[in-house]
Amino acid sequence: MSFSWRYEDTTGGPVPGPAVTFDDQAEAEDWFSTTWPDLLESGVEQVTLLDGETEVYGPMGLRTP
């Protein structure tokens, strides 16, 4: 499968974001670790990591407590 991120608002509703896929979970997480501030600025409040259609984990909020 391929890994991707689902982008959401605070209620879990869909938010547009980059349509990128990754060969493995580590690659997806590395990309996210450098991109999350830009995602937050564009209106993404939380993300869920997907392996194909299967949720790996999330939702994970982008705002620090």
Would you spell out the secondary-structure blueprint of this structure?
Blueprint: E1 3-8, H1 25-41, E2 46-51, E3 54-61
Antiparallel strand pairs: 1-2, 2-3
Characterization of the model:
The protein has one helix at residues 25-41, and strands at 3-8, 46-51, 54-61. It has 65 residues and is an alpha+beta fold. The chain has one domain. It has a 3-stranded antiparallel β-sheet with strand order 1-2-3, with helices on one face. Strand 2 and strand 3 form a beta hairpin. The longest helix has 17 residues, at 25-41. It is globular and about 30 Å long. The protein starts with a strand and ends with a strand.
Q: What number is the mean pLDDT? A: 96
> How is the largest sheet built, in terms of strand order?
1-2-3
N- and C-termini, Cα separation: 33 Å
How many beta strands in the DSSP annotation? 3
Query: Any idea what the radius of gyration is?
Result: 11 Å
- Main sheet makeup: 3 strands, antiparallel
Low-confidence stretches: none
Q: Which band does the percent of strand residues land in?
A: 25-35%
- The geometry reads as globular
